[in-house]
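pls design
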């Protein structure tokens, strides 16, 4: 039996002033960045004061909004929302700069300098697995605190990192904070923290082994970094917990973004289940790039049969080719419908919006408005 999911009412979500944060999440390549920008633009033009935070390395968001370059500071998007009293700022996460800001805010100037100049910190803040996701959540916390202080924004839209798995956004901060509070770190801290009795023969064996594996200079850099960073460990875990609680709050709404493809919808299902388990507020699912249905009742089988007859009768090859194209399109639509229905059968309570595929990529504000209109108007694309 076909299951029709409830409609995700995008405009109701954007107009609800109790909604302060919208997090767009999903696997890579499904249109999270475009969806985030379209939601932010539509909200601004409906009167909200919006900032959109992207973690997209391709910088497509800046291009589509007519801004030469985005950085770690919100930049106004010209001419947006003025008539309705709204505004739109955009920014792109600078992972290392955000990490530096956390260190500078938590440590004395001298200790901050020691940490920022340490080679191990430079590697950790630039490329350590999970740092980007942690810093995305850190920047979200900063923006939310600023909005509460000065009222500069009343809606934050977050485009989550292009991770291999959508679940990395929720898991990575915990992995990073666990690493910073783990056994290996405590081992490196032992000489600085403990009395001389800790420097036992057993400890010397461990440090000698680490020296052989890592090299003496690398080990010294790590120990220097960890000793300087020691007082900040608890703060990092506390901040991660605070941001995680913010994501669970009633003012946050998760929008899971997918494409009508098996892997993308599988990731979306995992994410919906995870959000449910973690008691996080799920607004619904957006399925991007949906193939428009054919405006005829001619089935794929009938089109193929007619094409075969034309070819066998030596009739117009053009007509036969068009019938074959129609059959291929119908089969694509049927395949997408089957995948979406299977998701709906497993998650019948998840509100869903379908966005038709466009003929070309989005590259300006008008393209984003078209996406926003497609998100809001579900009458013509409901499956």
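designed seq:
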């Amino acid at each position: 039996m076909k299951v029709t999911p409830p409609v995700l009412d995008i405009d109701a979500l954007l107009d609800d002033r109790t909604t302060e944060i919208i997090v767009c999440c999903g696997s890579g390549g499904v249109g999270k960045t475009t969806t985030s920008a379209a939601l932010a633009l539509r909200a601004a033009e409906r009167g909200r004061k919006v900032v959109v935070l992207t973690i997209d390395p391709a910088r497509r968001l800046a291009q589509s909004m007519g801004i030469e370059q985005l950085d770690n500071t919100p930049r106004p998007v010209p001419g947006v929302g003025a008539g309705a009293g709204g505004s739109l700022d955009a920014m792109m996460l600078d992972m290392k700069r955000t990490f530096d800001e956390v260190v500078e805010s938590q440590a004395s100037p001298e200790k901050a300098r020691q940490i920022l100049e340490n080679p191990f910190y430079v590697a950790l803040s630039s490329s350590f697995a999970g740092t980007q996701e942690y810093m995305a959540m850190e920047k979200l916390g900063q923006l939310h605190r600023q909005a509460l202080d000065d009222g500069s924004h009343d809606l934050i839209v977050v485009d989550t990192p292009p991770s291999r798995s959508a679940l990395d956004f929720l898991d990575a901060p915990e992995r990073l904070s666990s690493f910073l509070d783990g056994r290996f770190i405590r081992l490196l801290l032992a000489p600085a923290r403990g009395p001389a009795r800790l420097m036992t023969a057993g400890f010397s064996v461990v440090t000698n082994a680490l020296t052989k594996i890592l090299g003496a200079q690398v080990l010294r850099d790590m120990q220097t970094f960890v000793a300087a960073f020691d007082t900040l460990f608890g703060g990092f875990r506390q901040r991660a917990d605070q941001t995680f609680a913010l994501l669970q709050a009633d003012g946050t709404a998760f929008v899971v973004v997918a494409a009508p493809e098996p892997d993308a919808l599988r990731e979306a299902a995992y994410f919906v289940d995870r959000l449910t388990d973690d008691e996080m507020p799920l607004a619904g699912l957006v399925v991007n790039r949906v193939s428009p249905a054919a405006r005829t009742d001619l089935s794929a089988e009938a089109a193929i049969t007619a094409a075969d007859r034309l070819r066998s009768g030596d009739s117009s090859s053009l007509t036969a080719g068009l019938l074959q194209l129609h059959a291929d399109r119908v089969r694509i639509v049927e395949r997408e419908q089957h995948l979406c229905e299977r998701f709906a059968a497993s998650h019948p309570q998840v509100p869903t919006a379908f966005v038709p595929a466009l003929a070309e990529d989005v590259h300006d504000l008008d393209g984003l408005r078209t996406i926003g209109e497609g998100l809001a108007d579900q009458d013509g694309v409901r499956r």
